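[Solved] Which block belongs to which protein?

Original post:
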Amino acid sequence: MTVELNKIYCGDSLTVLKSFPHESVGCIVTSPPYYGLRNYGAEGQIGLEKSPEKFIEHLTEVFMECHRVLKHDGTMWIVIGDSYAGSGRGKGDINRKGLQSKASFTGEFVKPYRIATCKNKDLIGVPWMLAFSLRERGWYLRQDIIWHKPNPMPESIKDRCTKAHEYIFLLSKSPKYYFDHTALQEPAKYDGRKENQRKASKKYLQPDTGAPLQTISKGGERWTVVDGIYIRNKRDVWSVPTRAFKGAHFATFPPDLIRTCIAAGCPHGGVVLDPFMGAGTTAVVAQELGRNYIGVELNPQYVGIAQQRVNEKKGR
């Protein structure tokens, strides 16, 4: 099958991906459904499995098919949050509507599951379960990035902190891969010093050791200067506010979160795949950055919403 670029395919991710040619995309950026949180009304949806292990098994199947369609020098960026084990009862256990009551298709809360391998109120550890599963299957687990949310969803809990982060896992198919590090550079807090020596630990600076300070070649500085601006490599904690999307999708991730992923992981004119396209944020950002996109989404209503967002962006 020849894949049609800049198209959102409606169907089950695993089934659709199996029809794609080998090594046909350059980068994957996606956010799979949370485990046991919402019912989006699509038969065969991932996220409503009766155990976290089964959920991870299903996700692993999808991402191993992603491994096949990804080019040898490609990367995959997965945004994923965690879930708690439930007691099967409580205030929120009867499919009440989400907080965006005026939006259509937000998805309903599902009854919190009793989980045989977890105690009631246990944090499940879903992100790391997935990361380790993919690593065991051949993916290179290159980095865990923290998505810090300055404006997290309020929680009424009184026995733990409010959740204000999710993980972004950077995985690669090969030990060497395409990565534009300049896309991750950010302004440095330059303090005015020009260092021309590297300082060792105290034990190596004692006079009786005879170990001199190590001079940096060419009088180099500790900071890199580009166009007169001091910059540094991006740190692995990204503070990006969540952004409401009134159209439909409750869990839409903000464009600013994945803009860096696409810019660093996919060359200009390349192809970005999102096997859980949702409301189409990946497609919109890829288009803005001069990349092609391919999306897969199970719910036909979301496909329509995503396509409308892409078309509106094109028309501007």
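(Second protein starts here: sequence line, then its structure tokens.)
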Amino acid sequence: MCSAKGTSHETFPVTVSREYPPAPLVAVAAVVVDKEGQILMVERGRPPSQGMWALPGGLLDLGEPVRAGVAREVLEETGAEIEIVDLVDLFEPIHRDTAGRIRYHYVVIDFWAHYRGGDIAAADDVDDVAWVLVTRLDDLPMEEETRRVVHKAHALWRQANGPEGAAPSSRAG
């Protein structure tokens, strides 16, 4: 991986347990938007959100810059190459077991990004991947916080790409 200054540095995957972790785990995710305004979504293949639709992303490696981590995770899970635009929000899913103990605790840093290419396919810990219209988000099982982050990022995309939603260079006039 490369640092923000471009110097190559080794990174290390986080090896602590995701279930009942000793501390919150830092993760990254991206609302990847294509030229038509569709969102790249993944169906999670592992707990805690197995079977739910989510944003592509995962744990940040030790020593890995956040933006490099989100680009790596999106590529690993979906095959998509992205251009990160900006930070959108922070998402903090905390799941407790029936005894009230913290079973999962993530701090997810959410970005929005433009899709730049790549062959889209489910990989890594993902069961499925799909381009989804924002108007169809309610058709998919997902955390309400994920829907909120997607809507917020999509609004930023619309604002950046003009009222018709198309990139300014591709609009007539």
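Accepted answer:
You had them paired correctly. Confirming on the second one: Residues 53 and 140 are 6 Å apart (CA to CA).
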